[in-house]
Design goal:
5-stranded antiparallel beta sheet; single chain; 742 residues; 62% helix; elongated; 4-stranded antiparallel beta sheet; 26 helices
Length: 742
């Protein structure tokens, strides 16, 4: 592999104009398709095969009026007034008249007629039913709904909007995301010691992300895709794009510290060695993200494949566009000589194990060498402190609860959050957790259908956790009846989950005996079903990830113990990261700092997503760090020196890569969308813990304890495992001194 990448790097550097032109053309085409022929992104997380989704599909087919999106308008009277007053009634009537005129609204319920007024007559709500699902309601209709509330607000009433239609759009590109990019640039400048070199990874990452994300936008025209999928592709693509370019540029400048190093040869060797690590790391990330398909959940599959495609583009950019731009910059990237010698990287160890002329300047990896020596001298105390600390962080993960975000988790200043609080204040927490029982009597004789529905209603009313049962609503041909159930507990309460299971076990029995089918559905039930489905998929997904890591790392490092150590470290990072997420988002700690609107269950697909993404990123750092250790051990057979050398040479770059990743992901923590916020936090804390605690601390300590046994491979396995040559042994000898420079 090293030989092919060496040739590719030199070819890209010599044909740099053509390579740059091709990538700019691809970017232009992708932007054009993604902006003009893009599809509509969904906000729903549907999962085929679960009961709530089957009920929703049945309603769309036989009772479309009940399957449409709902906008819930919530009113609150001014202090000291009642909604039953003449002025308040006129304001409510005027508002509902405007709501009814919004395109797509089929019906608006009057609170005074439906009885949806609180006991103290200060809070009421009216449901506006649309003729299409919530995700298909255009933004223009949502804007008109918000404008319709002005009549009530002008009269002194508080009017807020909730329901399934009111979900706000996900937006990116705010100040926090921009600050994250600025921090990444500063880290690059400090690490590379050059503003020119620092700008290159940002430029190539933007081009790669532009191609990847715009292609995903175009594909949304043909594939149903959630808005979270494009945001994830942006987050992952930008982070890995910067990191992969950083590794190549850093290796190239390290080699150029030798004044006799030829620019084109250095580009080829950087592409062969650092590029091999990039290829292995990128393939690992791609396979890990694609493995999300093993959960059998379409929206998660599309999300993983979209992010994996963007990572693939980032790898191709690193192996072709980065060498081309390095060719354009030529001698300008060579570190400047300092007084008393070169500003080099000390002894520049070649890809083939040879050693260039020693630089007489400061060794840039001095702090890394000191850190590596500390890890190798005191490995046991280091391991005890790190493992105990990570396990302590992981403790909250034992009480992990999964769910889908409700309006309670929207920003406190949003109308969705305010409507949630008003409903809870006026009617109790269960009004935000309404369940729906759909009774399909198609196979039941017509004369028996009404009696069956009454039996279901009687069973529901007896349940101690049911607050209210709405009157049944039947479709035109009388085959499908819907009952609304209001629990006493909120959507995130364990009692509501238990109620859903009880209703499915008990309330549906009369329908089953008669030959019909009954479903317990609704948004709250859907969240419960999705969480259960994802929890069941976790063991298989983790098994795929573990086996994948063992195989790939065994091929890369020709070792059994190194892959095993990497997997155990990854599991430690996942446990600690999930513990931190639970502590902040589920327990509600530090809610002011991270702008968390309410303590709530963790987004149901976050654990699977975190495992897939963090696995790939953790293997990135593992490959970049340990490959330098393996390279040194392969040439010198000194296990302890190899560990110290790896941390010395790659420690600074891995540190910079982790800080860049964290700054990019961290910018999304302050996004208003609760899903994006929690994903951003989980990836940020996961990257920081894995890079600084596991890879830069635990890994050197473990390898110091293992010594030469870390790099051992049984003979029979050594013959079976292919040799991919990430050390660059197959590369041609370095050109002699005085070689041509550009």
């Amino acid at each position: 592999m090293a030989q092919r990448l060496y040739a590719l790097g030199r070819w890209a550097a010599r044909r740099r104009g053509r390579v740059l032109a091709v990538w700019l053309l691809l970017l232009a085409v992708a932007v054009g398709l993604g902006t003009t022929l893009n599809g509509k992104l969904s906000t729903e997380f549907s999962v085929p095969g679960i009961e709530s989704q089957e009920a929703q599909d049945l309603l769309k087919e036989k009772f479309p009026e009940a399957a449409g999106g709902t906008a819930r308008v919530v009113f609150e009277a001014p202090k000291g007034a009642k909604l039953t007053g003449a002025k308040e009634q006129r304001a409510i009537g005027a508002t509902l008249k405007k709501v009814a005129a919004v395109p797509g609204v089929l019906d608006v319920a009057d609170p005074t007629k439906t009885g949806t007024v609180s006991k103290d007559r200060t809070i009421a709500y009216a449901d506006a039913v649309f003729g299409k699902p919530a995700q298909d309601v255009p933004q223009s209709a949502k804007d008109k709904l918000d404008d319709a509330l002005d009549a009530a607000r002008d009269a002194g009433l508080k009017a807020e909007l909730g329901g399934t239609v009111s979900t706000p759009p996900v937006e990116v590109g705010g100040p926090a995301e921009v600050i994250g990019i600025v921090i990444a640039f500063v880290v690059l400048a400090v690490t590379l010691g050059s503003l020119l070199a620092a700008g290159l990874p940002l430029l190539t990452a933007v081009i790669g992300v532009g191609v990847g994300v715009m292609t995903v936008q175009f594909l949304s025209r043909f594939i149903e895709m959630t808005n979270t999928a494009t945001i994830l592709a942006l987050m992952i693509g930008l982070a890995v794009g910067i990191d992969y370019a950083l590794f190549l540029v850093s290796r190239h400048r390290e080699q150029l510290a030798d004044p006799d190093e030829d620019v084109h040869d250095s580009i080829g060797r950087a592409t062969a060695t650092a590029g091999s690590a990039v290829t292995f790391a990128g393939v690992t990330v791609i396979i890990a993200l694609a493995a999300l398909a093993s959960a059998g959940i379409p929206f998660l599959t599309v999300m993983g494949l979209a992010a994996a495609g963007t990572v693939l583009v980032a790898v191709l950019v690193a192996l072709t566009l980065v060498p081309a731009l390095l060719g354009f910059l030529g001698e300008r990237l060579r570190p400047k000589a300092k007084q008393g010698g070169t500003a080099g990287a000390g002894d520049t160890e070649g890809a083939s194990g040879t050693t260039g002329k020693p630089g007489r300047g400061r060794v840039p990896g001095a702090w890394g060498l000191a850190w590596g020596r500390l890890m190798t001298r005191f490995p046991i105390p280091v391991l005890v402190v790190c493992v105990v600390g990570m396990l302590a962080l992981a403790v909250p993960a034992k009480s992990l609860r999964l769910g889908l975000p409700s309006n309670e988790t929207q920003p406190t200043a949003s109308t969705q959050h305010k409507s949630y609080e008003l409903l809870q204040k006026g009617f109790g927490p269960g009004f935000n957790a309404t369940l729906l029982i759909a009774v399909d009597g198609t196979q039941v004789p017509a004369k028996e259908r009404e009696g069956i529905v009454k039996q279901v209603a009687a069973t529901v009313q007896k349940d101690p956790d049911v607050a209210t049962l709405a009157p049944p609503d039947t479709n035109k041909d009388g085959t499908l009846t819907v009952l609304g159930v209001v629990p006493k507990s909120g959507p995130d309460d364990q009692r509501t989950t238990d109620l859903v299971h009880r209703l499915r076990d008990e309330a549906t029995k009369p329908v089953d005996r008669a030959g019909g089918t009954a479903y317990v559905a609704g948004q709250t039930a859907a969240g419960i079903d999705v969480s259960a489905k994802l929890s069941g998929a976790l063991p298989l997904f983790i098994a795929i990830i573990v086996v994948l890591a063992l195989l790939l790392l065994m091929i890369a490092f020709r070792s059994v113990l190194v892959p095993l150590k990497a997997v155990l470290g990854f599991l430690l990072s996942i446990a600690a990261s999930l513990g931190a997420v639970v502590w902040v988002f589920q327990y509600g700690h530090l809610d002011g700092i991270f702008q968390v609107a309410a303590a709530a269950p963790i987004v149901s697909f976050l654990p699977v997503l975190l495992i897939g993404v963090l696995f790939g990123l953790a293997m990135d750092y593992e490959v970049f760090l340990v490959s330098r250790m393996r390279e040194h051990y392969h040439h010198h057979r000194d296990a302890r020196a190899a560990v110290e050398h790896g941390v010395e040479r790659s420690g600074r770059v891995v540190t910079a890569a982790a800080l860049i990743m964290a700054s990019v992901f961290g910018g999304f923590i302050f996004n208003h969308d609760p899903i994006i916020k929690s994903i951003g936090f989980a990836l940020t804390i996961g990257v920081l813990l894995d890079a600084f605690v596991v890879r830069l601390t635990v890994v050197p300590a473990v390898l110091a304890l293992l010594g030469r046994y870390a790099w051992a491979l049984p003979r029979w396995l050594d013959k079976a495992v292919p040799n991919v040559d990430i050390e660059g042994d197959s590369l041609p000898p370095r050109p002699g001194t005085g070689g041509a420079r550009e």
